[in-house]
Amino acid sequence: MRSSDLSRLERLDAIAALLKDDAALTANGLAERLGVSLRTISRDLALLRDRGVPVEADRGRGGGLRLPRQWGVGRLSLTYREAVELLVSLAIAEQLPSPWLIANLAAIRRKLVASFAPSLKDKIAGLRSRILIGGSASAAVLESFSPLGPEISEALLTGFLEQRRVRLFYRDVAGRLTEREVEPQWLLLNTPVWYVMGWDHKRQAVRSFRCDRILEAHLTDVPFTLRPAREFDEAIADIRAIRP
Fold first, then answer.
1. pLDDT surpasses 70 at 166
2. Which residue range forms the structural domain that includes residue 144?
3. Which of 54, 122, 232, 237 has the fewest beta carbons under 10 Å from its own?
């Protein structure tokens, strides 16, 4: 059965990773590890070499193969969530008022996205417009800021990535405690303060929630669909920000 383009890309990534190990593998060993024919492995190795991957072959009866461990990063094997977190981290660093040593982060970010597998690229593309990285929070905001707990951040991020409603217990600027059920549609960072912008089912309107004022966050099983960007125009009108 002929392999699909996607499965071949994944196999090429796996071959490169295996060959970076200290112990040399034979072509037969690679074929056995990956469950394909020796002919398929031979074609894959030829393709890797055509792309500039320096696959080394040990002479002798064993015919061992090796890829120098210091060679490149190849196509990164990141999960969807790991990719999102890495891209957001780079976007945050771009906003830091210290250009020395990080002047090329935008170019690095573009190369990183280019290295993702096609399926991951498609998923990331849909998220980039919904995450905004702004400047630093104001002194007044920082006076009352407190770090976000891991359970709350986990529920919010999962709801955002998987498009599921989150039930919040929220203390507003006046100190009032309310319970809300929110669709976390957009995220905004004014370092170090995160905000969730989403559809508030109690208010039946777009609302912003400062994450460190959330006392509890509980992920629900209720899915939501993304709302048109124009519904958030007013909420982000005065925000100068970049997207991961």
1. yes
2. 135-236
3. 237
* 71 in any annotated domain: no
User: Phi/psi of residue 207, each to 5°?
Assistant: -140, 155
The count of structural domains within the chain is 3
**Segments of 109-175 assigned E as strands:** 131-136, 164-171
Strands 164-171 and 177-191: antiparallel
Residues 236 and 195 sit within 8 Å (Cβ to Cβ): no
Q: Are strands 131-136 and 177-191 parallel, antiparallel or unpaired?
A: parallel
CATH number at residue 230: 2.30.30
Q: Which residues contact 197 (CB under 8 A, 6 or more apart)?
A: 185, 186, 187, 188, 206, 207, 208, 209, 232, 235, 236
Residue 243, in any domain of the structure? no
What pLDDT score was predicted for residue 99? 59
Taking only the tens place, the pLDDT of each residue in 80-124 is 788 888 888 888 877 776 656 666 777 777 777 776 767 777 778
Does residue 180 share a domain with residue 221?
yes
